[in-house]
Amino acid sequence: MKNIWRTGVIFAAINFLALAIHWLFQFIVSPQLGGAQGEYGLIQFTIAFITFLGIPLQIASQAITHYIARFHFSGDDARLHGLLAGCRKFLFYVTIAGSIIAIVLIKPLGDYFKILRTSLTFVALVVSIGGLWASYFTMLCQGLGWFKRLALIGLLSAVLRVLFGGITTKIWPLAEWAVAASAFMLLANLVLLAWKKEFPKKTEKIISPWTPEFIQFLIVSAAWAIGSNCFGQGDLLVAKKFFSNEEMDAYSSAGLFARALPTAVGPLLIILFTHRSSQHHHGDALAEQLKLVGLYAAGLLVGAACLYEFRGFALHQLRRDTPDAAAMVGHLAGTMVFVGLVQAIGTWALASRWIKISILYGALGIGYWLALLFLGKSTGQLLHVMFVAAGIAFAVLFAVWLVAMRLHKIGAPEES
To answer: pTM of the entire structure?
Structure first.
């Protein structure tokens, strides 16, 4: 994993191409939904809703990825294969549990956030369960450093989404079919079967992951996953609860591009997490990681400036270039810069095993979402609270991160 920032640039470039194809999906689907108020907003909200339902497996996958990377790059193959065997069993049960949780919670949560169509609730459940079962492939690729294959899956997923969503919404212009495209695109994970021979070999010696250290990291991963989802998607849940269909369409249109800022440079954090998880924390490795973070931050800032400059063009491609949507882009872009920077620090802390900072990140994420829920009951209020709350969260977390760096905590696990 030498020159990880170069690997990060290549990986991010390929994923940006995939993101552009996902935008093409939006540009095709949005006009095909016609003028029906609320349909487009329903798509964005439902996808965010599905992401929250997948939090249990996100927690497990992040913890397991950390340990796979740790033993893979240490060259401890026997330990790696035994651990993988134990983790497969663990992931299987977590996936079943996550599926049951999704089935139980989707109706009451759907009612709370005003998903009033049973058909859309059912589609959300199918996509949620499919995503749970597909995430094992992502975890395997990331932990073993198979970034090119992960990028290939991302590209193929985007193409499948465009094909399925473009055809189905042309025939049936409903949010259900656009959301169902997110389930169809999961079939791209099957491409990994072409490298089946390179999968870690099965072993008779199964090593249980349930050590005190792993349990502690699993708890910290829970804080990280909850914080990341609250920062990245929490505003859509709040908007759906309080906004009218017309307001939701405008907000979702503006938010689509603003939310793409951390998504576009997010692959850099995937590589950062894997590299720091492999216990490369000092010297040249640290310098490479800081370059990666610098590149990530620069990407956020440049992306926000470009988005603001071309907001009219971008919204026109969605056929949703209303004055309300255009006015929201600047506020949302600024917020997402703060959110992206907060997520970078949170990822650094988790990979470094900085327990207290990771828990602080999760607490800040929950506080951010609660502030939106109680204070963001109109578009103007929500936009203002988001920007201020994200800025405060970044200031607090950045200050704590700087103190940790100055105290030479790099590479040393914190005591709980």
So the answer is: 0.79
